[in-house]
Amino acid sequence: MTRVAILGAAGRMGRALIQTLAAEPQASLAAALDRAGAADLGRDASALAGLPESGVLLGADLPAALPGVDVVIDFTRPDGTMAALQACLRQRKALVIGTTGLDAEQKAAIAEAAKTIPVCFSANYSVGVNVCLRLLRIAAQTLGEGYDVEIVEAHHRHKVDAPSGTALRMGEAVADALGRKLEDCAIYGREGHTGARDGNTIGFATVRGGDVVGDHTVMFLGEGERVEISHKASSRTNFARGALRAAVWLAGRPAGLYDMQDVLGLK
Ligand code: NAD
Questions:
Q1: What pLDDT digit, counting tens, does each position of 201-244 carry?
Q2: How far is 169 from 181, CA to CA, in rounded Å?
Q3: Which CATH superfamily includes the segment(s) 2-121+236-264?
Q4: Among this protein's residues, is 107 annotated catalytic?
Q5: Which of 37, 100, 135, 220, CA to CA, is 20 to 30 A from 45?
Q6: pTM as predicted
Q7: Of 17, 58, 76, 107, which is best to mutate to test ligand 1, by the most ligand atoms within 8 angstroms of its C-beta?
């Protein structure tokens, strides 16, 4: 039985994780944590997620909770992720990171910590999205240079980063397959007199609004045809189920930096 701590337990993903965990025979909720000062501290975490009480109270002290935990699942903000990374490093615990919007320095800190502890870091824990990443590599390798690549994503009005971590990951998958570096060829939005499209670029467009859980479409636009690979999430459950699958998979693994492609055996 994998003992799981959820960091960000009062949030949208945290609550979805607690609901999913309740039906998971291979894992149990060992701790539920959120930031110091969060409104619901001290309340029963399962009740917060709309379930019968489990006796696990929402706390804010991750280091104190860690001795009774095998894996931490983090869906918070980058500062929460960095604090979790240091706490897990100190106590040699496995960490599943779902938080997006991390900068290059923070990603480097994750890679460094993964030399000592097992870390799974994925911009998207949905199994369907990970299958799409594989399809994108095949499409990019086979279609090659003659196709313009554009990535369109839509999310709910509360999302604070753009483009989504998943859209960036999709861009990286295509760029890698084409032998490019995303940071050299990404165009984030267009406005005004842009000139003709440079065939080496990968364009991104972002839509924000309503309660859209997460839509991503990658277009390969060629002469006389276009290929579109789309994924549409209709609830957060698929991310929660994937993250939990990653947590069970990660427990007891050797130190290393893994992602959902590793968990699903898609590499
Ligand atoms: P949310 O705002 O509903 O929840 C975030 C929770 O984290 C809140 O309860 C907040 O109080 C808590 N928090 C913030 N800072 C903290 C800190 N320093 N320490 C402890 N807790 C802290 O957000 P959400 O919709 O649940 O998304 C959370 C993160 O997960 C975002 O970065 C989002 O983009 C990402 N996300 C990733 C995936 C994926 O598959 N990788 C899927 C969905 C969302």
A1: 999 999 999 999 999 999 999 999 999 999 999 988 999 999 99
A2: 12
A3: NAD(P)-binding Rossmann-like Domain (3.40.50.720)
A4: no
A5: 100
A6: 0.87
A7: 76
